[in-house]
Amino acid sequence: xxxxxETHLQPIKDNDIVINRPKKxxxxxxxxxxxxxxxxxxxENKRHVVTPPDRLHQPNGAAFRLFNEMPxxxxxxxxxxxxxxASSFGGYWLVSEPLKRVFESVDPxxxxxxxxxxxxxxxxxxxxxxxxxxxxxxxxxxxTTSKIRIELxxxxxxxxxxxxxxxxxxxxxxxxxxxxxxxxxxYNSMKVFCDRTLRDALIEHGFGKEPNTRGVLxxxxxxxxxxxxxxxxxxxxx
Length: 238
Known about the structure:
Elements lengths: L1 E5 L20 E6 L8 E3 L2 H4 L12 H4 L6 E4 L9 E5 L2 E5 H10 L4 E5 L1 E3 L9 E6 L14 E5 L6 E3 L11 H4 L4 E4 L2 E8 H9 L11 E5 L4 H4 L10
Parallel strand pairs: 4-8
Antiparallel strand pairs: 1-10, 2-13, 2-14, 3-4, 5-6, 6-9, 7-9, 10-11, 12-13
Helix pairs in contact: 3-5
């Protein structure tokens, strides 16, 4: 099976009831801010820690328990320091102690952490940092009301993949999300979703705020969804 399936919204008839739609301010895509300056921190013992030397996702942080030794990070240049959230560390996020505390305070079951040895350029011990993985996977995207492109191929987990793209507008099954504040979809393991509760906690503690995001980027998962849907879907027209 190979192909694509772009979900389309059907016009609403008089007797139809809209039970879901992309809604601004409910869910967010949690990303690393790639526009931040280069950090100059290297994962020195990556090939000894992660086997194979790539992201090894396991539910409930099981991959971290398979590490052969503590991850060792080193600041390679004295004038560059890693942000509170960074990526490309063996396929995992790297988070600071303050950011870890926010994650754990809101959703301790949604994340797993592995403490790192962090060495500054002058050889002294640096502030605590952790490899971080989002370990909750929920099939919570409502494909019937989302505006997304779905790639179909037997090589994908579950036979499909939610493509990246600025035009995507996500709606979610609230009964599946339940009390979760952060989760992955099984059809794109690199896209992390969070709810308004986690988003607000991050903003409150200074993460994801311009002009200094501290490496945290929060994008509304519905984006402009309220205005890209046909007018018959808008709340004021119901």
